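Appendix B, record 7
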Amino acid sequence: MNGENGTNKKKLIKIKIKPKSSMTTQTVEKEKDEEKEEPPTTVDAAASAAETSTSTYKIETCDYTIINCCCIKGLTTMKDENKKIHLTVTSPPYYNVKDYVNYADYKDYLSTLRTVFTLIYEITEDGRMCCVNLSNILIQRESRNCESSRIPLVFHFVPLMEDIGWKFIEDILWIKPEGAAKNRNGGFFQHRQPVAYKPNIINEYIFVFQKPSKHLIDKIVRGYDAITSLNSRVDDGYERSNVWKINPETKSKHPAPYPELLVDNLIKYYSFCGDTVLDPFVGSGTTTISAFRLNRKSIGFEIHKDYMDIFENRIKTTIKNNTQPNIAIDKDEYLNLNEEQIKKKLNKYSKKHLYHLVNNDCKYKSFSKDKIVDLIHQLNFVDAT
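Structure tokens (predicted):
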């Protein structure tokens, strides 16, 4: 890395964010090169070009970190330090996206993915999940004398993951509006000649894999305390099939963004509050933003420092928009009320607010209104507070 070799001078910039309410002061530390670096041409070149800066956000007892480095280096460090994660949610960079990372060929691309997901496998807790958003690769034709082609990446990726040791769990189809797709059937629309048919592509895949465990999922669920389990319970409105119709992200400056709703779903369905979520290709920080809003810890790696700046702006906005009031609950008062009386008493607060129980050694736990009602009627509420 340039910073490690001493080729560029660095200056340390500290930005302090002071959100409202009970949020503690946020400290962002990052190192910036004074000289502009050339874009990478290979994975190794990109790794050497990425500076070793970090953006670390500490919200209460949670640590949200994005590190500007090649994810292979970052994951190797995590492995060496014996750090563990509970869930991975990521979307690897497309094979043929220009100005991001250029691979020697498709074989090199697959080899890089194998290295990355082998390292993720080694730092994942037994029985926990890895969610990967992928799509087959469209190679545009170079001239009118050439044809476009597609590489079936998704069908190569599953056996690659199984060969590493991952267990295939689910395949989810992300369906986009037809207008979001690149038009491939213009010629066919005009001539309607057989064999020339090429449909517009409006789907991507989310594959869910599990690191095998000798125990059943039930043991993982039982490993969490009653408050965490209740707070992590998935509300109504969850996706009931493996076909998710979600509009793509259109305002991001990242070349391959994915929508927060998609990430929210995966984090809610496959992790508990307080778990650590990893994104080795974090980009502008969508996975980190979702993890923050859903009370999970997160670790992300991003090879391009420009996206670190985008993330800083996004996390500031998210912190501002997600500041919630503290409500100290008098359990004795509420335990003598029925559910309707409790709801009436809490009715002055918006259902969109999160409520914090502050009696448990200053460990903040957030609850929706309905979950507070449920919690009050559980015997373990007395012990928890």
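Remarks on this record: The longest helix spans residues 106-123. The chain has two domains: 2-321, 331-384.
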